[in-house]
From TrEMBL, chain A:
Protein name, per record: Putative glutamine ABC transporter permease protein GlnM
Keyword Cell membrane: yes
Highest taxon above the source species: Bacteria
Organism per entry: Actinomadura macrotermitis
Molecular function, one GO term: transmembrane transporter activity
UniProtKB/TrEMBL annotation, chain B:
Source species: Actinomadura macrotermitis
GO biological process, one term: amino acid transport
Family stated for the protein in its record: Belongs to the bacterial solute-binding protein 3 family.
Residue ranges constituting the Solute-binding protein family 3/N-terminal domain according to the UniProt record: 73-295
Record key words, sorted: Signal, Transport
Pfam family, one: SBP_bac_3
UniProt cross-references to Gene3D superfamilies, sorted A to Z: Periplasmic binding protein-like II
Signal sequence region: 1-25
Keyword hit for Membrane: no
A cellular-component GO term for this protein: extracellular region
Protein name: ABC transporter glutamine-binding protein GlnH
Length: 214, 313
């Protein structure tokens, strides 16, 4: 157990990096997801196709492959960004595909009458989406978005493979010095559990506040 | 160094990433029965080594060695992707390198035949694999440390390596560990290079990647000023890649041990006696010549003294 107390700074720094990575990636994923979901609901076929292509391409290639491609492939064509920036952008875009699907299901859950009423009032597509459909859609999918937030936190562990010292990499480094994998990885696991429990709690509260009773 | 997966090397690491994934799959299905030399094909230098290898006169009754002999196969925790050390040749499916050769020689010493089964292990799993008896020995660039010696028994050291610094070929001003202060240093995840760089150059920023090709690519793409890695690994890298240059000699001593089940003093003594035998007969030097010696000029170095590393007493 003293293995953990002796290495608290390393664990703390790793946890902080994981939290930063998760929050930034999640913010990015929400923006990307809402935009892509809007594309998929658009009345223009090309936009719908683009939205679908985005979701299919991003979801059907593993995140680790995306990360390795971005970190090692992009510099080959002259695009070099920092490791943290690269990881945030890649995770955000990847999770964005999942968020888009969740939001789309929310859009589908909004009764057709709402959209028809918005059009009858003379709202444009963008206006009806922004003022009528999306607010209701997002409030329906708070719980799935909470799950995706947890998924995002877990997926940040893959950033360890491309050089970021987040919680998993930090635990790995401590284990390298101490050779006590059980305690060290159990601790890392407990940290992840705490983060996801917190996320679950927050999304639960949000859900109860925002739910639309139909 | 600890474990170091080195996949296929390609200029486009994009391709390498995908390939290494398929490579992993290939390893796992080949891991079962790959290590035994084939019958008629490719009688190489490794087979000559095995032919010249000694067989133990007798095995103590009830010992681990006797169990291994009864089973007819030595189960080794090792790699299939470490160049010069333990790498599976895709053509012959034979595992080649220093660790692989020592595994075959030890198997012959115990069983009389070089029957080895390599179980692909990793630095995170080696202690557990030994403790629960999945593998008999670990031969995987297993650096002897006092912390690890609390979990496993180490015979040896059987080889002494060390960390060296590599840079891009035109890089100036990095020749010794102290020069790394204030620089960004690339290291392999799960290698002792991380701790060694922290100690030698406390102001260095360390970034880690999972495999040697990734680290090399990161160095060439300028994500770091230097790459610190085990000499044996970097020799192979620098030989293949003219853009990478090794700066100076090793700055650490890194003794590799043969991992055994913790507390099995009888087997540790047995393996140490075997190491002394092959060191005295010159077989050790021939094994070195067969792997590391193919990229390093000159004669084989003096083998490390058995029990000399802290943790191997």
């Amino acid at each position: 157990m003293d293995v953990i107390t002796r290495h608290l700074p390393e664990f703390g720094a790793g946890l902080l990096q994981t939290v930063e990575l998760s929050l930034l990636a999640l913010a990015g994923a929400l923006v990307a997801g809402v935009v892509v979901a809007a594309l998929r609901a658009a009345p223009v076929a090309v936009l719908r196709g683009a939205g679908m292509a985005y979701v299919e391409i991003l979801q059907n290639i593993p995140l680790l492959v995306w990360l390795v491609l971005a970190v090692f492939g992009l510099p080959e064509i002259g695009v070099t960004a920092g490791l943290f920036t690269t990881a945030v952008v890649v995770i955000a875009l990847y999770q964005g595909a999942y968020v888009a699907e969740a939001v789309r299901s929310g859009i589908n859950a909004v009764p057709v009458g709402q959209g028809e009423a918005a059009r009858a009032l003379g709202l444009t597509f963008t206006q009806s989406l922004r003022l009528v459909i999306l607010p209701q859609a997002l409030r329906t999918v708070v719980q799935p978005l909470g799950n995706l937030a947890i998924m995002t936190i877990m997926n940040t562990a893959l950033a360890a493979a491309v050089g970021l010292v987040e919680l998993t990499a930090a635990a790995n480094r401590v284990n390298l010095a101490e050779a006590d994998p059980i305690w060290i990885f159990v601790t890392a696991g407990l940290c992840y559990m705490a983060l996801s429990a917190l996320t679950g709690l927050v999304s639960g509260v949000l859900e109860r506040r925002l739910v639309i009773l139909r | 160094m600890v474990r170091f997966p080195a996949g296929p090397r390609r200029t486009a690491v994009a391709a390498a990433a995908l390939l290494s994934l398929t490579g992993l799959a290939a390893c796992s299905d080949g891991g079962g029965s790959a290590a035994v030399p084939g019958g008629g094909a490719a009688k190489g230098a490794a087979d000559e080594l095995v032919a010249a290898a000694p067989v133990a006169a007798s095995l103590p009754a009830g010992s681990t060695m006797e169990k291994i002999k009864k089973r007819g196969q030595l189960i080794v925790g090792g790699s299939l992707d470490a160049p010069l050390l333990s790498q599976q040749n895709p053509g012959t499916r034979k595992v080649e390198g220093l660790d692989a050769d020592f595994g075959r020689l030890l198997a012959k010493y115990i069983i009389g035949k070089p029957e080895v089964k390599i179980v692909n292990s990793a630095s995170e799993t080696r202690e557990a694999l030994l403790a629960n008896g999945t593998v008999d020995v670990v031969l995987q660039t297993y650096s002897i440390t006092p912390e690890r010696a609390k979990k496993v028994a180490f015979a040896g050291p059987y080889f002494s390596s060390g960390l060296v610094i590599a840079t891009k070929k035109d890089k100036q001003g990095i020749a010794k560990p102290a020069d790394l202060n204030g620089k960004t240093v690339i290291a392999g995840a799960n290698t002792p290079a991380i701790a060694a760089v922290k100690k030698a150059a406390p102001q260095a920023k360390i970034i880690t990647f999972g495999s040697d090709p990734e680290c090399t690519q990161a160095l060439k793409q300028g994500r770091g000023d230097a790459y610190v890695q085990d000499q044996a690994v970097l020799l192979a890298t620098a030989k293949q890649d003219p853009e990478v240059r090794i700066q100076g000699g090793p700055f650490t001593a890194d003794p590799y041990g043969i991992g055994l089940k913790h507390g099995d003093a009888q087997m540790k003594q047995f393996v140490n006696d075997w190491l002394k035998t092959i060191q005295a007969s010159g077989l050790w030097a021939k094994t070195w010549k067969n792997s590391i010696g193919t990229v390093v000029q000159g004669d084989a170095p003096q083998p490390p003294a058995i029990g000399s590393a802290p943790g191997s007493e």
